[in-house]
Amino acid sequence: MLTGSLVAIVTPMFEDGSLDFDRLRKLVDWHIAEGTQGIVAVGTTGESPTVDVDEHIEIIRVVIEQAAGRVPVIAGTGANSTREAIHLSRRAAQVGASYGLSVVPYYNKPTQEGLFQHYKAIAESCELPTLLYNVPGRTITDLANDTVLRLAELPGIVGLKDATGNMERAADLARRAPKDFLLYSGDDASTLPFLLLGGHGVISVTANVAPRRMQAMCTAALAGRVAEARELNDTLQGLHKHLFVEANPIPVKWALEEMGRIGSGIRLPLTRLSGGAQTVVRQAMQMAGV
């Protein structure tokens, strides 16, 4: 069972917005050396809305090639069109992804039955194991726990990334979901209680900047070493909060640029982190010992 800290890795870019695969490969090696348990390529933090389909698949392929089996690679495969989500899932499977992470369809506001049929179609059309991804703050549509549990009964639907930050929902899922159904937090700030309630790990933005400490916190929490986990998490609270001072991934890409790990590239309509926010993020980095 894949547990611990899984990084929602950024997509490095040059100043003109072209993809920087050399820096991407170096990030993969760094995360593995720092103890990150898995890498999520081309999620929200990887700027999935701004890359085209061919770029999307090439980013996944490069991450898989560089990881070389050392850690699992989870490919962002979601779309608001079921056909496109199936296409991305099939392409990700072809290049060797371990899982697909499929976000709830955004903008078109499907019903719960529509969501069930969407994910059922993906599972039936591709052998790639699928992780559901519920982030209603971005998609508007909310994947209800009862729908998650219906989907958990289908072959090929193996887990959920829950970015609601709602601990009542997390406790309900941990109690009712099949024991082998993977439950990941998608909200760094509430990851510690999520793990203590029975979650298996986190798909993390914070781990981009502080991978070793994020993994150590998850390891301590999963082992029941609560005091140690709380102490580690306290140092990360600034990053949990302020890496969202502007829309993700604007702050995290700036932080990694400050660390000398990527260049300044980001694609419109996203823009470089504003001056006042830079001070806030820098203080959070110092608090985390980065």
UniProtKB/TrEMBL annotation:
Subcellular location: Cytoplasm
Pathway stated in the Swiss-Prot or TrEMBL entry: Amino-acid biosynthesis; L-lysine biosynthesis via DAP pathway; (S)-tetrahydrodipicolinate from L-aspartate: step 3/4
SMART domains reported in the protein's UniProt record: DHDPS
Annotated site (Part of a proton relay during catalysis): 44, 107
EC number: 4.3.3.7
Entry annotation: catalytic residues: 133 (proton donor/acceptor), 161 (schiff-base intermediate with substrate)
UniProt entry tagged with the keyword Zinc-finger: no
Pfam families associated with the record: DHDPS
Enzyme class at the top of the EC tree: lyase
Positions bound to pyruvate: 45, 203
UniProt record similarity statement: Belongs to the DapA family.
Annotated protein name in UniProt: 4-hydroxy-tetrahydrodipicolinate synthase
Originating species: Chitiniphilus shinanonensis
Lineage: Bacteria, Pseudomonadati, Pseudomonadota, Betaproteobacteria, Neisseriales
